[in-house]
Specification:
mainly alpha, homodimer, DNA-binding, about 0% strand
Chain lengths: ~210, ~210
DNA sequence: AGCGCTATGCGATCATGTTCGCATAGATGC
DNA sequence: GCATCTATGCGAACATGATCGCATAGCGCT
């Protein structure tokens, strides 16, 4: 593992070689994930494309799922950039939330496979991978909470709600729709509609009596 | 596969033997899942306990995950029985929903492993398994929708809400909390609280203006 | 140059879910 | 009773993610 201990010379030739190898591995993995999907992208194939033996990959990565997490982190970054580029803090909170899910969905829809496997990664015994996947989720939940909080201080939302709980509910509602979509039970449009419906529902609430404590 | 073609004699000795084998396999699988967890319950170990070779299992089951689905279906049944036993249709809808999640959680808490793997099963390439796992989810969503619908006709709920959307939101909210719990990020109590909070939130709604269309 | 040390790489090997070809036993038809 | 068919079972083999022990190379130190 390259990340441990003191590293006096960052220009150590070996470390540079390692960094280049890591880059090649990630590139190969990304390409193969997109070409064949996660499961069909064999470690041996990734290794071959990266120009090395399969076992060498484990010098740089703890498991195949870790490669996935790296890829997911990048996708998340991309979705966020796109969202932030167009986002205005003054927009109605509900709109902002909807826009966010739109951006996210735009990206995930291009990689249905990864969407599903991301969820799978969350269920793996290797707690390293699972918690990193969950951390990604938490980041998204955090962003949603931030949006909601903005709305709350602006008086856009019921001040009594816990924004974190709400953000979680929104997030997992979206996940649920995407699982169905990724399994072919929902068309892409229906998935988007389902997410919108969930947002709508959360804003309106189920109860008849509105602000009854 | 035993389920195909005509079966003139249901007392066919071979079929009986097959049925007994299936029963042994399921019993062995259940025991080992609980003793060691799904991943650590090797197919070869299951086979050994069932008194047969590993490959023979595949005469009765399409994959290891199918054994899981069988087990999950049984757990679901158990949770429902318990819920129905104590449920009264006249109770407040929110209470009923909370009680349902309580029963479900009681059971799942005894099998944290299965909780997680059930989600994983939902992400599997073998669409047979994935859709069966999803079907179980849909059943639960259906029950929740039924509860909500009962509340709606009784005037307990805002008549404008789509009970199915709401049921899904509730269900996936619970799933989200359980994923965190199963990964050790949430204590069991915190998981229950999180689910309750989600229910609470859904009933109250985020928006400030209550019944605005 | 020589000696350790560490990062990297590799082939053999393992564990495990799954598939395959073959064997057996029970049923059916003649 | 024999041929045939089918449900069941088995051991060998396969694919693949992961591990292990050993080799190599680049670095620092003397």
């Amino acid at each position: 593992m390259a990340a441990s201990g003191a590293r006096p010379r960052p220009d150590d030739g070996r470390l540079l070689r390692g960094a280049r190898s890591r880059a090649r591995i990630r590139e190969a993995a990304r390409a193969l994930f997109r070409e064949r999907g996660f499961d069909a992208a064999t470690l041996r194939a990734i290794a071959a494309r990266a120009g090395m033996g399969a076992s060498s990959i484990y010098r740089h990565v703890r498991s195949k799922h870790e490669l996935l997490v790296l890829e997911l982190a990048e996708l998340q970054e991309e979705a966020w950039r796109e969202f932030r580029r167009r986002d205005a803090r003054t927009t109605a909170t509900r709109e902002r939330v909807l826009r966010f899910f739109e951006r996210q969905h735009e990206l995930l829809a291009r990689h249905p496979d990864l969407t599903v496997i991301a969820i799978r990664a969350t269920t793996y015994p290797d707690s390293r991978v699972a918690s990193r996947a969950l951390a990604l989720n938490d980041r998204t939940i955090g962003l949603l909470a931030e949006i909601l909080q903005g709305g709350r201080v602006r008086g856009d939302l019921d001040p009594g709600v816990d924004v974190l709980v709400a953000a979680r509910a929104l997030f997992y509602g979206a996940i649920g729709a995407r699982i169905s979509w990724a399994n072919g039970l929902l068309s892409e449009g229906a998935c988007r509609t389902a997410i919108e419906d969930t947002v709508e529902l959360l804003f309106r609430g189920l109860g008849r009596a509105p602000a009854s404590p």
